[in-house]
Amino acid sequence: MNTEKRKVYCEHCNEKVEYLIINEVKREYKNVEVNVKQNIGVCSQCGERLYISELEAVNLDRLYTKYRELTGIVSPKDIIDFREKYNISQRELVAILDWGKMTINRYERGSLPNQSQSEILKLIITNESYFREKVEDAYKAGRITEKTYNGMHLSVDESKQLSLSNFIETRLCHEPSIFNGFRKFDIERLENLIGYIASKVNCLYKTSVNKYLWYIDFSNYKNNLKSVTGLRYVRFTYGPIIEGKNYELILNLDNKFEKDVSEVNNNEITKIKSKNNYDLSLFSKSEIEIIDEVIELFKYKTATNISDLSHEERAWLETKDNELISYEYAHDLKAI
């Protein structure tokens, strides 16, 4: 431990005191094992922890850097380099993406994007076709000027670019197996299913979508030996979720539903609203019966209630964190 000469205020001692620095290891952050060294200031008189702004800034930078490495979150440099490539300002980029006006400024100064916005940023950085779509939408909606639109000089080699739908399909499509309910992933079915669920559930939150989909897929497998969507799910703290947290990307699709994002007590709350243009002809009569049964069971329950129910299922109890959940567990569903 090293003694610092500069004094800071200690609430417990009610005076300015010298402080010591102790080393700790932060094991976990946002359910990810990070094992990052932290320097903590403690009062040299009473031993209580102190808030030392310089130490906290270094600790956060070290933590965020490690978290980005482990999760693939986009870095500030990636965003800055991207803006410089197209000669656009922070204000113009948030206008293109239709985000809050200070969002890009925060991310470039080191704040962590949420998983959904990180995936969108990575996608526009690596996929000019998708960026073009966003720019076209922003121009048509009047969020960017003609001067900005023409100044980007976008050029797309269509043979090398992917739309968001195709990008998601490349990440989620696997050969039929027990882990996807013996159905190849079908994004058209998935989009229409979410649109239909959202039309029936007044408050469909992002955190609940995974559980609706999981119970529908597993219930259909239980009855028809095939999933509805072809999705694969993994065990997560709050219940089964789509593999790789790809629901963050899926919820950016906007053909059949849209996101309504708000902030409550510094927490981002995402509701899914249907555009009511879903196509139920994609599903068989028995599939629709199962879909309706799951919706009826859950539509008046909170996200926490649904999560608690999933924690009682053998599929969650007997699968390790982040491991794929076998559809064999469909035969043991309790809630349905």
Compose a concise summary of this entry:
With 336 residues, the chain is an alpha+beta fold. The protein has 14 helices and 10 strands.
- Approximate shape: globular
Low-confidence stretches: none
Computed over alpha carbons, the radius of gyration is 24 Å
Helix content: 40-55%
**Rounded mean pLDDT score:** 89
The total count of helices amounts to 14
For the largest beta-sheet, the strand count, sense and barrel status come to:
4 strands, antiparallel
| H/E element order | EEEEEEHHHHHHHHHHEEHEEHHH
Estimated structural class = alpha+beta
Spatial order of the strands forming the largest sheet:
1-4-5-6
Number of DSSP-assigned strands: 10
Terminal CA distance: 57 Å
Strand content: 15-25%
Counting structural domains, the number is 3
Please give a handful of descriptors for the protein shown.
336 residues; 4-stranded antiparallel β-sheet; globular; two-stranded antiparallel sheet; 17% strand; 3 domains; alpha+beta
Describe this structure in words.
Helix 5 (about 115-125) crosses helix 6 and helix 10 (about 205-225) crosses helix 12 (about 285-300). Helices cover about 45% and strands about 15% of the residues. Strand 7 and strand 8 (about 240) form a beta hairpin. The chain has a 4-stranded antiparallel beta sheet with strand order 1-4-5-6, with helices on one face. It has about 325 residues and is of the alpha+beta class. The N and C termini lie far apart (about 55 Å). The mean pLDDT is about 90. It has 3 domains: about 1-70; about 75-160, no CATH class; about 175-330, no CATH class.
